[in-house]
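Sample intake sheet
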Amino acid sequence: NWQPTDSTLSSSDFAGNRHMVAVRTESEVDLTAFSIKIDMITKYGFLNYFSPTHWGDRLLFARFGRLAIEGKYAAAIEMFLFEGSMSGGKLASSIRLEAEKSRGDQAKSLALWSVLPQTFANELKVVKYLEANPGDFLGALQQIKDQVARWIFAYGASLFNEALSHLASNKGVINEKLPWPFSPEASALPIYQELMLRDRTDKYLASPFMVDSPLLKGQEMPGRIFPTQLTFKPFNRGIVIDCLMGGTQTIQPLLMNIFNLNNALPAPSWADSGVVDIKKILNQGDNSDLLSSFLA
């Protein structure tokens, strides 16, 4: 049920938050054990951790955000420029390595970042600004304010995950809601203050990146997620999962509570590269029109 459009989508355009996902497995699925997992999740839900999708293409985003709040702008830039990334593959990693070796040689540095101008668009903004304004690390970060906001969001997400883990370990979490760590309501949860004191980010309101930031707005999130209409059906060395998630929740946390991920990229040799028609497996029609559009 889809159609092309020239406009962007907003949350109000969605009739629901349904996920239909095919997961390939190394061996045939043990349906008895799998059914037990599904029954447990349906009954008890699972902890509402922020998944890695909130960290962008670099799991270091939370560390960048922490440094930005601390006021360690030079350290944040150094880590941003030279620490590893999942985007761009080996070429991007080699460019970061060579750029680090070429510090002080502005011409060579710019030439290296320019090899992948789209991948390194933010890096180029930072490097060019520092070339014109040596030592102004705060100003350099202000050239990529949207990116820094993502870093700080990732840091907030990591604080939420730690607080949730602490509460679950000490008293269990059923379905009470937890405040966002930078919201006014966060003061009601002492663990946030402890974590920020540890990280030296408790003065986050003084950060120039938090002025009028939407990250300061109050919002609460459930401690557990309860997917509904959760069904599944196996296929050859794989299984299809069909469910409804609340709000705008993604399906990644659910999958992480069901499967053990042993390999990511490159795809393991046992993974079948053939096309899977999820609707056909679920006896809900087929995706032939959609598949022909994408595979044309």
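Comment: The CA atoms of residues 115 and 165 lie 42 Å apart. The beta strands are 18-24, 46-47, 177-179, 220-222, 224-225, 228-235, 238-244.
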